[in-house]
Specification:
Keywords: Flavoprotein, FMN, NADP, Oxidoreductase. This is FMN reductase [NAD(P)H]. GO terms for molecular function: oxidoreductase activity. The structure is a single chain. This protein has about 250 residues and is of the alpha+beta class. Helix content is about 45%, strand content about 10%. The chain has helices spanning about 5-10, 25-35, 55-65, 85-95, 105-125, 140-150, 190-210, 220-225, 235-240, and strands at about 45-50, 75-80, 135, 155-160. Strands 1-2-4-3 form a four-stranded antiparallel sheet, sandwiched between helices. It is globular, with a radius of gyration of 19 Å.
Length: about 250
């Protein structure tokens, strides 16, 4: 018998085509409730969600992220690393918080945001909704911070669209690198990684062609095109402006 949870996870895809129908408030509340139960480092709960339903504000986020398709979503959710919350706890305990001034602090915020995002996507899919992770909110982080009125010690790590998927326009599930180059026994195997990259480059090329998107590159071309440059160059300066830094 097929496990419905595993089937949902293995069939996950980024949904960029929506019907325009409204996400029910009761469903959104359930998705948020499930997301809040995601684990966080030391139970610090240093993640805050900012849920945007106003269409003009979603359109502005789409503009700042450089991804016009975001505007088609019914809702947009920002996953914010929130050490303002833990600073309040430190104040209550009569101590000074310094975690946001460490590399570990930034990693904690990013990791916890990623865990929350994955939980959010799974919960949304369980109720029949579609999502797409949006790293583009880091493209113009200072403007996103201003739009969402985020205080110091917070940073918008990632976002997600949310809407009713147009199932007639869903992409096929995108293939991944060979599993043997993804999950390794006991130790890292660089040779398997290199072999996996070479084979996956051809697999992804064929997948794009099958979608009629012949203009897209293979894995090597697409990845190198982004990672050969600092593609969101405002992140470090904006982190510092928000009170984040490496002092350790």
């Amino acid at each position: 018998m097929t496990n419905p949870v595993l089937e949902q996870l293995t069939e996950r895809r980024s949904v960029r085509a929506f019907t325009g129908e409204t996400v029910k408030e009761a469903d959104l509340a359930e998705i948020i409730k499930a997301t809040q139960q995601a684990p966080t480092s030391i139970n610090g709960q240093q993640i805050t969600l900012v849920v945007v339903r106003d269409k003009e504000r979603i359109a502005r986020i789409a503009e700042l992220a450089g991804q016009p398709g975001i505007a088609a979503a019914d809702a947009f959710v920002a996953f914010v690393a929130d050490f303002n919350r833990t600073a309040e706890a430190a104040k209550l305990a009569g101590t000074e918080q310094v975690v946001e001034r460490s590399a570990e602090g930034i990693l904690v915020g990013a990791v916890d945001a990623g865990i929350a995002l994955a939980t959010f996507q799974a919960a949304a899919a369980a109720l029949g909704y579609g999502t797409t992770p949006i790293g583009g909110i880091r493209r113009n982080p200072a403007e996103i911070i201003a739009l969402l009125e985020l205080p110091p010690r917070t940073f918008p790590i990632v976002g997600s669209t949310l809407g009713v998927p147009d199932r007639a326009r869903l992409n096929k599930v995108k293939p991944r690198v060979p599993v043997e180059s993804f999950a390794m026994a006991e130790r890292y195997d660089a040779e398997k990684v290199a072999e996996g990259v070479a084979s996956y480059d051809q697999v992804l090329r064929a997948w794009w062609d099958g979608q009629g998107l012949t203009q897209m590159g293979g894995y090597a071309q697409e990845t190198a095109g982004v990672y050969s440059r600092i593609y969101y160059p405002e992140v470090a300066a904006t982190l510092r402006a928000q009170g984040f830094e490496f002092t350790d």
